[in-house]
TrEMBL record:
NCBIfam families: mnmE_trmE_thdF, PRK05291.1-3, small_GTP. It comes from Ramlibacter ginsenosidimutans. The lineage of its organism: Bacteria, Pseudomonadati, Pseudomonadota, Betaproteobacteria, Burkholderiales. Its main location: cytoplasm. This is tRNA modification GTPase MnmE. InterPro entries: G_TrmE, GTP-bd, GTP-bd_TrmE_N, GTPase_MnmE, MnmE_dom2, MnmE_helical, P-loop_NTPase, Small_GTP-bd. PROSITE patterns: G_TRME. GO terms for biological process: tRNA methylation; tRNA wobble uridine modification. The gene is mnmE. Signal peptide: none annotated. Its cofactor is K(+).
Length: 484
């Protein structure tokens, strides 16, 4: 990958299709051959110049703005030429083809997805967490996610990681120095309060992990499945949460057969809500396929809303069917028991109902509350009562879902993060725990302590990419959109 850094690349940087303006971007060690051929004049550095873009025969492909960003002061850190044309697939493809032709002498080729940003990373314009934040900014599905991606892009997350690294380096220096004077070791470390330093570092890792967990939540969202017997009002609930008529609602049990999905947001947290076929025994063939799909969704959910019909709560057959479903719900997915159709019953009934399924306290699998805050596990209320028809009680359900997700808007503002970052932070945490255990022992094995600190630092550096495998970089950048 590093070897290809000297190749010249070009791409359409704007989204494919009709647009007011479209951009073709070239990054190379030297873009002069393309400026000469396409712009046919000199360009002042970093200034937009309005001119005709020339075809090989000298005719104008379009009139637009050309900007030359001389290396290293560009997005990629290389020599960059931007041609800002009228948006339109044909115009931009002609312009790109013209650049490739004019750049033949410098072996100009079409860029791979993420290749411009990859160069920015390799040239030190961005670290890996910032590069990822660019992709997350482009893909953000809510305003909160976009804002937090901007924070990471501006380096807020990276600065936190660097502060942790600096503290870790200080501690390592202390331990390494002590290794050289074995007879004084206990004294030396005690005087420097190595234990205190390590404890503060662990607390800071926990704090960063908590913030990163919030950021990962904004990026990934929560996968919520609405499940329950036919006619409980699952489609009605999806529609009520989404504020739109997405799923078909009828009084006929077994209406929904296929899975209906919708992404909604609660306080900026994306919730991918899935309405499923009603779960029952003895369904006909098509409905049965829907039911199997519903179970597939349930297995992979971050949370399940187990919906019950309050108007039927007293029926023995209804209760036993619910109990049969409850028995089949996976152990490791949190379940919220929700009684629907509150509007259709008297106030007396509303508060006199039923046992929740017994596994509402399981921590979410995919977005498990980080080790930072084990005590933050949701304190599950027994069950919720609402009306999908009137909207009453929906806010409590929203709040409960955020609680399951482990969402607490951080006071300092959330920065976007990925599961990859959380994974690295968990490893840092684990190595620091080992280090603390070593330090607390009477007969300290200082070399083991030093090794744990070194491993913790490596894990930390993976976040910002100072210590990352090439194939990891390849995977990260290949997921960018073309032209980025
Ligand atoms: N037209 C256009 N708009 C765009 C981009 C672009 O490439 N072209 N970007 C692309 O994604 C983003 C902006 N990113 C950029 C990042 C750095 C530099 C740049 O010239 N950096 C120089 C100078 C910095 C300075 O003057 O402070 C440098 O880093 O040395 C340009 C764009 C969003 N908008
Ligand atoms: N009174 C009242 N009726 C509701 C409420 N929610 C849903 N219903 C009615 O219950 C019936 C079934 O609603 P759906 O939303 O289609 O139920 P479902 O669980 O998706 O049904 P299936 O597709 O069979 O699994 C419809 O007649 C709805 O109008 C509610 O909050 N109050
Ligand atoms: K339905």
């Amino acid at each position: 990958m590093l070897a290809r850094l000297d190749q010249a690349i070009a791409a359409i940087a704007t989204a494919p299709g009709r647009g007011a303006v479209g951009i073709v971007r070239v990054s190379a060690r030297d873009v002069r051959p393309i400026i000469d051929a396409v712009c046919a004049r000199d360009l002042p550095p970093r200034q937009a110049v309005y001119l005709p873009f020339r075809a090989a025969d000298g005719s104008a492909i379009d009139q637009g703005l050309a900007i030359h960003f001389p290396a290293p002061h560009s997005y990629t850190g290389e020599d960059v030429l931007e041609l800002q044309a009228h948006g339109g697939l044909v115009v931009l493809q002609l312009l790109l083809a013209r650049c490739l032709e004019a750049g033949a002498s410098i072996h100009l080729r079409v860029a791979e997805p993420g290749e411009f940003t990859q160069r920015a990373f390799l040239n030190g314009k961005l670290d890996l967490a910032q590069a990822e934040a660019i992709a997350d900014l482009i893909d953000a599905s809510t305003e909160a996610a976009a804002r937090s991606a901007t924070r990471s892009l501006a380096g807020e997350f990276s600065r936190e990681v660097h502060a942790l690294r600096d503290a870790l380096v200080d501690l390592r220096m202390l331990v390494e120095a002590t290794l050289d004077f074995p007879e004084e070791e206990i004294d030396f470390l005690q005087k420097a309060d190595a234990q205190g330093q390590l404890a503060r570092l662990q607390a800071n890792v926990a704090r960063v992990m908590q913030r990163a967990h919030q950021g990962a939540l904004l990026r990934e969202g929560l996968h919520v499945v609405i499940a329950g017997q036919p006619n409980a009002g699952k489609s009605s609930l999806l529609n009520a949460l989404a504020g739109a008529e997405l799923a078909i609602v009828t009084p006929i049990a077994g209406t929904t057969r296929d899975v209906v999905r919708q992404t909604i947001q609660i306080e900026g947290v994306p919730l991918h809500v899935v309405d499923t076929a009603g779960l029952r025994e003895g369904a006909e063939e098509v409905e049965q396929i829907g039911i199997e799909r519903a179970w597939g969704q349930i297995e992979n959910a971050d949370a399940v809303i187990f919906l019950h019909d309050l108007t039927r709560a007293e029926e023995a057959a209804y209760q036993s069917a619910d109990a049969a479903i409850a028995a089949k719900l996976p152990e490791d997915v949190p379940v919220v028991d929700v009684w629907n159709k509150a509007d259709a019953v008297g106030a007396g009934v509303r508060f006199a109902h039923h046992q929740p399924t017994n596994n509402s306290d399981h921590p979410s699998r995919r977005l498990a509350v980080s080790a930072a805050n084990p005590s933050d596990a949701p304190s599950a209320p027994a069950s919720l009562t609402l009306s999908a028809r009137t909207g009453e009680g929906l806010d409590a359900l929203r709040a409960r879902l955020l609680e399951i997700a482990g969402w607490q808007a951080a006071p300092e503002g959330v920065f976007i993060a990925r599961e990859r970052h959380l994974h690295a932070l968990r490893r840092v945490d684990a190595h620091l725990m080992e280090a603390a255990a070593q330090l607390a022992r009477q007969a300290q094995a200082l070399d083991l302590l030093a090794e744990e600190l070194r491993l913790a630092q490596n894990a930390l550096s993976e976040i910002t990419g100072e210590f990352s495998a090439d194939d990891l970089l390849g995977v990260i950048f290949s997921r960018f959109c073309i032209g980025k």
